Amino acid sequence: MGFVIGRGADAATEQAGHVGRYRALDGSQGTKLYLDLDGPHATLIVGKRGYGKSFTMGVVAEELARAAGVTPVVIDPMGVFSTLAEPADGEAVPVEVVDEPAVSADVLGPRSWCSLLGLSAETGAGALVWEAAQQHPTLADMRRHVEQSDAPDTDRRSAVNHIDLADTWGVFDPDGLDASTLASTEITVVDVSGLDSAPMNAVCRGIAEALYRARVDDRIDRLPWLLIDEAHTFFDGIAEDALHTVLTRGRAPGVSLVLATQRPSAVSEIAISQSDVLVSHRLTAGADLEALNAAQPTYMNDSFDERLPTDPGEVVVIDDATETIHAAQIRARDTPHGGGSPSARELADHE
Ligand SMILES: Nc1ncnc2c1ncn2[C@@H]1O[C@H](COP(=O)(O)OP(=O)(O)OP(=O)(O)O)[C@@H](O)[C@H]1O
């Protein structure tokens, strides 16, 4: 027995992930806390650096990897989730790590192509890229379209150079990740840590759109959960539109999102207002507290900052479905945690 976030007290714990225990004032361990993995949720995990966001996301990932009927995908900008594939304590955690992710070029519309390449659609080169992206599904076809156009030489050269730049990122491939490859029983860890912000955003957008569309068109029969670490990076780029779609329209087709960020003030207001589960570690920055205070639910009587925990792994959970607030300690990882800051002392001990 315990509390299931998203369901309530004394709810059955089937299709729910064990994420921690209640935190008692005297430090003793309380009853178990679970997260509902049955229905769709938008979950926001926040906290200042080093207080356990990635660790908590890893715990949610372990539970999702073991759950039935879901297809979890982690977008991993820091390269810390491949450790999910290492031997686990207890039940196995089935994982597939994708080291060199690619998506199909046509997941981006003409507007996104222009902003990805930093071209205004009002310029000659921007207009060419717009037209090429509108008419062709691959980078090679887009390039050919530009070369064969009768636009001025300088515009064609500039457009081709920009398309070639996108090609060097190595993230566009007609056979890239799609919903059917992602919709496996394992959790897929998409390691985007070697990529710059623009290609990283392109991959994230491609995956978010592929999962969303596949559910809308009824092409996959598992419910997708998209977990995104360092989520502020993607609200700053071309992934934002796709994430907004999932946040505002994902519930009906059953697409869930779990976002982790140390800067809640840098994700969009939509991400905060649409989240039905907020997991907050310690936070101290004024702008971040303000962003969360502004969205504070009416059933929360004290101000948000008064509730905040002090130590790594401690959280306050606001569950909008049951309109309840919980002080909890996130459980230990069953697989090694890949994050954390390196310590000079620990390195010296191994010399
Ligand atoms: N639930 C927990 N139980 C035990 N230790 C924890 C827990 N959560 C975090 N820690 C400890 O805190 C450290 C920092 O956690 P983590 O790497 O998840 O921080 P973070 O908030 O994601 O930081 P960053 O912003 O740098 O990614 C971990 O290496 C671990 O030692």
From TrEMBL:
Keyword terms of this UniProt record: ATP-binding, Nucleotide-binding
A Pfam family the protein falls into: DUF87
Signal peptide location: none
Region of interest called Disordered, as start-end residue ranges on this chain: 329-351
Top-level division of the source organism's lineage: Archaea
Catalytic activity: ATP + H2O = ADP + phosphate + H(+); Couples ATP hydrolysis with the unwinding of duplex DNA by translocating in the 3'-5' direction
GO function term, MF aspect, one: 3'-5' DNA helicase activity
Ranges where the Helicase HerA central domain occurs: 28-99
Entry's family note: Belongs to the HerA family.
Name of the protein in its database record: ATP-binding protein
Lineage: Archaea, Methanobacteriati, Methanobacteriota, Stenosarchaea group, Halobacteria
